[in-house]
Give the backbone structure.
Amino acid sequence: MKKQRDFIFKCTGCGHEEPKWLGRCPECGEWNTLVETAGNFAGSTRRSGRQNSLPPQSFPLSTVDPQEGTRIGSGIGELDRVLGGGIMKRSAILVGGEPGIGKSTLLLQAAAAVETKGRVLYVSGEESAGQVRMRADRLELRGERIEICCTGQLEKIETIMEAVKPLIVMVDSAQTLHTDQAGMAPGTVNQMKYCSWELISWVKEHDAALFLTAHVTKEGVISGPKTLEHLVDTVLYFEQNEGDSRFLRAAKNRFGSVDEIGIFTMGERGLQPVVDPSLLFLIHREGGLPPGTVIAAVLEGSRPLLVEIQALAVPAKGSMSRVFSDRIDSARVSRVAATLEKHLNLRLSDHDLYINVAGGIRIAEVGVELALAMALYSARTGLSLPTGTAVAGELSLAGELRPIRRLAGRLKAAQSLGFEGFLGPAPALPARLPGLAIEPEGETTGLRAVGDLKSAVKALFT
């Protein structure tokens, strides 16, 4: 048998191992990074023993217990909405956001409110136990079921998990995890990948769930290796506007939709779910709407929202006109402006266009296009839209209005907030086939249906 060495040479940058010293690491190409370390064969036995304790087996899908796919309620309705109905067992969830946005607060509130009788382990690598307790007291949270450990060393965390057997594990944050198995320098790319994979493997084997927080770069993406997002099942991003509103979005979700959005407000009692989000995005005015302002009925996931679209058109300061829009895709704004210029002979190519959404929410749904077109027309001509009218519809390049999803739900949301008028496309009907009974899509009383861009302008401004 080949004799095992008592020591190895490991790269401090990428964690690559070599049996002898080299001046340059063959993996990452860095010079003088290989250092002599003890060969930890016990750790290798631990990892391989966990993977090879049982021989590989296959079994019919029909024999799988359906209860393995049940979810655990987090106790926070907006978080459950974004996750697809609750916390899935044997899943790993990565939460990213800017510093101070509320990632730790969200995890602590979920740890105290999760709907389970099992234990919750809160691992803090950035704060002490006293600091976490002060936050819990300020938020008036009960922590009888919460076990806390303040360390970032992987071996200590795994020892505690084996002793406590938690149902939910929350780690704050992934950048603080480290182990000697992944190199001498903590915080490297290899450290994050190795430690995260070990924790994910543990929760999948013990029928638990894992929450990981992560910092973001100045571009707004999660810092560290992109592999970290591939390892987890769900990636959530925390965003905020200029005020106290917080938006939780799913960039990846293996167990639900990525179209849902959770809306919170940050206050003295922490993150509070918003019951009626439309009240955050509408400005109550005693007079009429100013030119360039339109109320749009958009769809965020399965929830209809009413938001205020604001547009401003001013003569271009240079030879090239520009579009300034950070809440709606600037390419969509340019396409809608080109459609207006083509079919209504409305000159916009020599104007700078400014687009804003009141409340700071980002809109990516196609149903906002008709409202965006009406806002641009109103801003360019100086004509105001009638008060008490909401607008929704998808606009084609030919100037036609296409049917949109859940038109009846948008109309109902507008009526519940006191809007008497609603302008949009006609609801889609299935094709007439022999023997097929056509059922109405829903109650559409109050809808003023138009078929193209000219008809919409005529209905609102004449």
